[in-house]
Amino acid sequence: MGGNKLQILTAMIIYMAVVVGIGLYYAKRASASSDNFLIGGRGLGPWVTAMAAEASDMSGWLLMGLPGVAYFYGLSDAIWTAIGLLVGTYLNWLFVAKRLRGYSYIAGDAITIPDFFSNRFKEEKKVLLTISSLFILVFFTVYASSCFVTVGKLFATLFGANYHLMMVLGALFVISYTFVGGFLAESASDFMQGIVMFIALVVVLGAGTAAAGGLATVIANARQIPGFLEFFGIAQPIMEGGVQQLGESSQPLFGPAGHYGLLTVISTLSWGLGYFGMPQVLLKFMAIKKTQELTLSRRIATVWCAISLTAAVGIGIIGRVVYPTAFLTQSGAESIFILLSTNLFIPLMAGFVMAGILAATISSSDSYLLIAASAVSKNLYQGIMKKDASDRTVLKVTRIMLLVIAAFAMVIALDENSVIFTIVSFAWAGFGATFGPIMLFSLFWKRVTRAGAIAGMVTGGSMVFIWKLVIKPFGGVFGIYELLPAFLLSCLAIVLVSLFTEKPGPEIIAEFEQARAMNHKR
Predict the structure, then answer these.
(1) What is the distance between the alpha carbons of residues 454 and 504, in angstroms, rounded to a whole number?
(2) Taking the mean position of all CA atoms in its chain, how far away is CA 124?
(3) Positive or negative CA dihedral for 214, 220, 225, 227?
(4) Domain count across the chain
(5) What is the Cα–Cα distance from 446 to 443, expressed in whole angstroms?
(6) 377 lies in which domain range?
(7) How many CB atoms lie within 10 A of CB 203?
(8) Residues 512-516: contacts with CB within 8 Å, 24+ apart?
(9) What is the mean pLDDT of the chain?
(10) Which of 418, 499, 486, 483 is closest to 458 using CA atoms?
(11) Which of 21, 53, 262, 364 registers the highest number of CB atoms within 10 A of its CB?
(12) What does the DSSP assignment read for 344-379?
């Protein structure tokens, strides 16, 4: 290994050592109870809540997936996705956070999302608990695999190492400290990682702009590519065998600009709907110490999100201007952040910037693994199979499931040609359509029934698969992002089934009114 790569590796090792230290610091408190391990005893402060929510939400796709889309197809697809996510972030913090924090405590002191739904509807037969736990297990396994792909690509690109070996080593690192430190370690490290991600994005954006000759030069060069810098057009790389072709002057070839119509814009904006169903974000709302501190958290999260998303899109566009032929496949384009960092900074600095990708990946994968494991241990094992299981046993099962779920995620991540953005978009749609509608109706409509909740959850989750695999290939109007139709059909199923089934009982109504009154007071 050369001196430059050794310096990069040294900086990243220092960063990882800090993360491990955080896990060890919280190990004793995490092992005190399953409540501490899974939700931190509802003791998070506003800054940690905000930064941990956004860091665990954005994952490695923010530094690799989103810049990769901008690099390959230009502004429109990336920027409309970013706008949708920013609006969704703000509305989720504004409407859902406070109500969920209070309601989850009132509804049996729920510490997981399946717990909340089950307690909210006072179900004796744990159907909602089972369905929601299984969907969490499936989609978070897919989500975790996208993080492992990110780690594999990062180290394979940096050091020319074997992708599969790097992917497995990265996964083992994430598993090790999540296994020890639980939710507290995850949240505390996510706070630090949110800061690292933010700094990395801003620094690379600034350095890239300077290397390209300034903002005016970037805009002028990007506009030479048909559709590349348009809000309602999209660049069309000329492809052959999945590889963009080069012209006689060794420049990448593009066809005429594609049309990016209103339906496509709405479809892309619908990414924002996913926030209402993201367990890793919703859980942070439930874990804050004081409900009134959520206002400050909302402001922090929104500003962080706005700047980070803008920087990520800008990095992809600048990367195409500075290194137009560096990546000729969509999968390869997701390494543009790495290329800019290693070429524009001294090795030691590049290593710390690369830690931003590690930060994004770790902060997400630990959340995904922990929530998926808790869905099995707390909800399925203790909630259904062995209700008298001790707290110590639940902790043990949680840690076992961490290993099992991670193993399945690693199997999915074995394909080194996976496109991170594509994997994330599917899992995002799954959570958004499965949990988003019923979360909103549960918090804001007292007439919703348990049958309506089940119908909405099953409709939303299953329709993501049906639309993606069966309907979307027809193209045209059916080519929209699967989250939008699945979300709308889930809402429809909730309303219709609730109206045609018996009204909720007085105990459920009383809790709903109590939660509403608590929200108004604060």
Answers:
(1) 14
(2) 32
(3) positive
(4) 1
(5) 8
(6) 3-413
(7) 18
(8) 512/446, 513/446, 514/106, 515/99, 515/102, 515/103, 515/106, 515/107, 515/443, 516/99
(9) 86
(10) 486
(11) 53
(12) HS-HHHHHHHHHHHHHHHHHHHHHHHHHHHHIIIII
Q: Does residue 239 fall inside a structural domain?
A: yes
Question: Using CA atoms, how far apart are residues 326 and 347, in angstroms rounded to an integer?
Answer: 20
Amino acid in position 447: R
Nearest to 386 by CA among 377, 396, 395: 377
In a domain, residue 468? The reply is no
State how beta strands 239-240 and 233-237 pair. Answer: unpaired
Could you give the CA distance from residue 485 to residue 465 in angstroms, rounded to a whole number? 11
Q: What is the DSSP letter of 183?
A: H
For 223-235, the DSSP string reads: TTSTTTT-SSEEE
CATH number at residue 385: 1.20.1730.10
Digit-by-digit pLDDT tens for the chain (522 residues) are 566 788 888 888 887 777 667 656 665 555 554 454 444 445 566 877 787 778 777 766 788 889 999 999 999 999 999 999 999 999 999 999 999 998 998 998 887 888 899 999 999 888 998 999 899 888 888 888 888 888 888 888 787 888 888 888 878 877 776 666 555 555 566 677 778 888 889 999 999 999 999 999 999 999 999 999 999 999 999 999 889 999 888 889 999 999 998 999 999 999 999 999 998 888 888 877 778 888 899 999 999 999 999 999 999 999 999 999 999 999 889 889 989 998 998 888 888 877 767 766 766 676 777 778 878 887 888 877 887 777 778 778 888 888 888 888 899 888 877 777 788 899 899 999 999 999 999 999 999 999 999 999 999 999 999 999 999 999 888 999 999 999 999 999 999 999 999 999 999 999 999 999 877 655
Is 470 inside a domain boundary? no
- Residue 369: inside a domain: yes
Tell me the two tokens of residue 268: 């892309």
Nearest CA to 141 out of 377, 409, 412, 420 is that of 409
* Helix, strand, coil percentages for the chain (3-state, nearest 5): 80, 5, 20
